[in-house]
Amino acid sequence: MTTLPGPTLGVVGAGQLGRMLAEAAAPLGVEVAVSDPTEDAPAAPVAREQLVGGFDDRETFRRLAERVDVLTFEIELVDPELLQAVSEETNTPVHPNPETLSLIEDKLVQKRRMEAAGVPVPPFRAVEKAADVYEAAEELGYPLMLKARMGGYDGRGNVAIEDASDVEPALEQVAGPAMVEGFVDYERELAIMGVKGDGEIDTFPVTETIHREEILRETVAPARTDEGTIERAEGIAHDVLAEMSGRGVYGIELFEGSDGDILLNEIAPRPHNSGHWTIEGCVTSQFEQHVRAVLGWPLGSTERRCPTVSANILGDVGRQKATLYNVDRALEADGCHLHYYGKDEVYELRKMGHLTRTGADGADPTELLEATRAVRDELTFDDAAE
Amino acid sequence: MTTLPGPTLGVVGAGQLGRMLAEAAAPLGVEVAVSDPTEDAPAAPVAREQLVGGFDDRETFRRLAERVDVLTFEIELVDPELLQAVSEETNTPVHPNPETLSLIEDKLVQKRRMEAAGVPVPPFRAVEKAADVYEAAEELGYPLMLKARMGGYDGRGNVAIEDASDVEPALEQVAGPAMVEGFVDYERELAIMGVKGDGEIDTFPVTETIHREEILRETVAPARTDEGTIERAEGIAHDVLAEMSGRGVYGIELFEGSDGDILLNEIAPRPHNSGHWTIEGCVTSQFEQHVRAVLGWPLGSTERRCPTVSANILGDVGRQKATLYNVDRALEADGCHLHYYGKDEVYELRKMGHLTRTGADGADPTELLEATRAVRDELTFDDAAE
């Protein structure tokens, strides 16, 4: 039986995801402490406390665990074995299960597990050296995508290989355990935020995701695809969730092939950029849902409230102290919600914030997307705009 | 031209209003510091910092002012002259204008000013001694409501006088400058959250408020009254706002007479309990709107998103450490949003949290109200429920 005040929650990682988790936990009466290697990270001002320490630092994990009732994480760079060990030592449960993190953080392990579970994935091969890539290319053909098995996100660690001459430079760039994937001729990208609670499984509505340079730019809900595709995507999301052993929210990225087939792209064991729109767009946000799930509380409704678009605010200048200009129109635009992450420094393509724009029932998603982009595209960190 | 990160905001008072202000400021990239006489007040865990000090403590105001770019307050107990003086000394603007606070905090001054401005108010008289009350009763008749001119809220400082025998005990209970109001035969109570920005004035949708023992229990939006009444209420809210000189959100409480006439009850120069439903129920919440207004930013849309009811979670036991039982159903109920204020101690009728429940477009407000009450009424601080 749930009582309040709720358990206190420790979040390893204090970037924007930690910040939005803390924002969502507060109304629930759940106090949040965070840890991050960067002092005064984005979550710090809204959390009760930030500890400073690395994602593989036992002492930081220990201090955080001793401070809170339940642990979670908002970044895959966390060392799962260390987190598990500290969880056991301090008798502080951690969700999702670090085992799940181990399964997900190595993209090759993730793909193999998903393939074994019958989840459709793009063709892939483990590669160590150039010869392995040439061999893969014979079977899968060029172009190939070379992916670092560990530590890649926002397209970092992914290098396209157009032909044989790209192989050696690509391997040098990735510099570590890697895999290649065959080219996927996709129509669009979709994402589903899934959630595993205490015996409950649910999914948020299918979201269309728009990437450029492998970085998410916008999301559109409802996704602009047909009902059959949406049902197939949901089915696959449920198959993926069935393989996950820990409570929490999962970001499930999918390709919709030109034939309508769905392929799994990647899984993140945490709230995900493609689910930020749920803050205003759904009855329960992915962040509140993650808090509920990791605490073992009943899950909230994942229902969509209205057509909703999100647009990332990315760094558009080189590394410097961050000041965002032309904010007025974003504040004035109808149904536009600002989320600024409070990062001190900006650099090219750094995720600095996002806009969410809600539309009336039945609003055209494409028009909503264009209207949102128009506002977002006026925002700049370039001080020429001053 | 607005840039981000925004100015930092200092809030005098760190109760639930300060807490929800801090929750609303975070996504906007606005950092909040708060001050309150009670250590670790409700806003402390979500604000950057809490200073500890009284609402008439110059040194606390000074330290807060030096810490932030703009000051505001969330409680009328603040000493307006002191706040004004510190604002000038430290060159830190304060909104709303402390002059407005001076006008509002003395209920007699407030009523006189509003009457002079042509705003309809219940008949009232200043009273100092029993003879004044008897004299007022001759003109206005019994029953009368005796009200402390200063410091009353949630019905504290209000004492009903049914007949002449109640006069002396009532005056003893109020013990200070007072006024009496004639009995208002009202059909229902309404409230409007108004906002004054930098040259902009706007109102949130008219809300029905349901009190018992003079404490707000539930709000219903849309108010269950006719269009003409709503228009009259909005007109009066605009008249009230025209008299206010400072930027910010104002809670305007109204009586709807059985003849459909509207009378002003009270004004609060801050976000108000009757506007909590706007967090989920409107495009912009009253808290985000207050942040925007005091910073001089463009105001957000006050549009209602859907039928929305809120229900206060009040203390139902004597003073003790607070544990709220039976929370599961509130977490499970469709469209139900929990707001727990994190107060350490509970006592009878203390405001400990609230539920907001959103309904589908066209949902019947009465059914929504009943469904919300049913969930709220299961919540208890009584450990017999354990």
TrEMBL record, chains A, B:
<dbReference type="InterPro" id="IPR003135">
    <property type="entry name" value="ATP-grasp_carboxylate-amine"/>
</dbReference>
<feature type="binding site">
    <location>
        <begin position="265"/>
        <end position="266"/>
    </location>
    <ligand>
        <name>ATP</name>
    </ligand>
</feature>
<comment type="function">
    <text>Catalyzes the ATP-dependent conversion of 5-aminoimidazole ribonucleotide (AIR) and HCO(3)(-) to N5-carboxyaminoimidazole ribonucleotide (N5-CAIR).</text>
</comment>
<dbReference type="Pfam" id="PF17769">
    <property type="entry name" value="PurK_C"/>
</dbReference>
<protein>
    <recommendedName>
        <fullName>N5-carboxyaminoimidazole ribonucleotide synthase</fullName>
        <ecNumber>6.3.4.18</ecNumber>
    </recommendedName>
</protein>
<dbReference type="InterPro" id="IPR011761">
    <property type="entry name" value="ATP-grasp"/>
</dbReference>
<dbReference type="InterPro" id="IPR016185">
    <property type="entry name" value="PreATP-grasp_dom_sf"/>
</dbReference>
<dbReference type="Pfam" id="PF02222">
    <property type="entry name" value="ATP-grasp"/>
</dbReference>
<feature type="binding site">
    <location>
        <position position="147"/>
    </location>
    <ligand>
        <name>ATP</name>
    </ligand>
</feature>
<dbReference type="Pfam" id="PF22660">
    <property type="entry name" value="RS_preATP-grasp-like"/>
</dbReference>
<dbReference type="InterPro" id="IPR005875">
    <property type="entry name" value="PurK"/>
</dbReference>
<dbReference type="InterPro" id="IPR054350">
    <property type="entry name" value="PurT/PurK_preATP-grasp"/>
</dbReference>
<feature type="binding site">
    <location>
        <begin position="181"/>
        <end position="184"/>
    </location>
    <ligand>
        <name>ATP</name>
    </ligand>
</feature>
<dbReference type="GO" id="GO:0005524">
    <property type="term" value="F:ATP binding"/>
</dbReference>
<keyword id="KW-0067">ATP-binding</keyword>
<dbReference type="GO" id="GO:0006189">
    <property type="term" value="P:'de novo' IMP biosynthetic process"/>
</dbReference>
<comment type="pathway">
    <text>Purine metabolism; IMP biosynthesis via de novo pathway; 5-amino-1-(5-phospho-D-ribosyl)imidazole-4-carboxylate from 5-amino-1-(5-phospho-D-ribosyl)imidazole (N5-CAIR route): step 1/2.</text>
</comment>
<comment type="function">
    <text>Catalyzes the ATP-dependent conversion of 5-aminoimidazole ribonucleotide (AIR) and HCO(3)- to N5-carboxyaminoimidazole ribonucleotide (N5-CAIR).</text>
</comment>
<keyword id="KW-0436">Ligase</keyword>
<keyword id="KW-0460">Magnesium</keyword>
<dbReference type="InterPro" id="IPR011054">
    <property type="entry name" value="Rudment_hybrid_motif"/>
</dbReference>
<feature type="domain" description="ATP-grasp">
    <location>
        <begin position="111"/>
        <end position="295"/>
    </location>
</feature>
<dbReference type="InterPro" id="IPR013815">
    <property type="entry name" value="ATP_grasp_subdomain_1"/>
</dbReference>
<comment type="similarity">
    <text>Belongs to the PurK/PurT family.</text>
</comment>
<keyword id="KW-0658">Purine biosynthesis</keyword>
<dbReference type="GO" id="GO:0004638">
    <property type="term" value="F:phosphoribosylaminoimidazole carboxylase activity"/>
</dbReference>
<feature type="binding site">
    <location>
        <position position="189"/>
    </location>
    <ligand>
        <name>ATP</name>
    </ligand>
</feature>
<dbReference type="GO" id="GO:0034028">
    <property type="term" value="F:5-(carboxyamino)imidazole ribonucleotide synthase activity"/>
</dbReference>
<comment type="subunit">
    <text>Homodimer.</text>
</comment>
<feature type="binding site">
    <location>
        <position position="211"/>
    </location>
    <ligand>
        <name>ATP</name>
    </ligand>
</feature>
<dbReference type="InterPro" id="IPR040686">
    <property type="entry name" value="PurK_C"/>
</dbReference>
<dbReference type="GO" id="GO:0046872">
    <property type="term" value="F:metal ion binding"/>
</dbReference>
<keyword id="KW-0547">Nucleotide-binding</keyword>
<feature type="binding site">
    <location>
        <position position="107"/>
    </location>
    <ligand>
        <name>ATP</name>
    </ligand>
</feature>
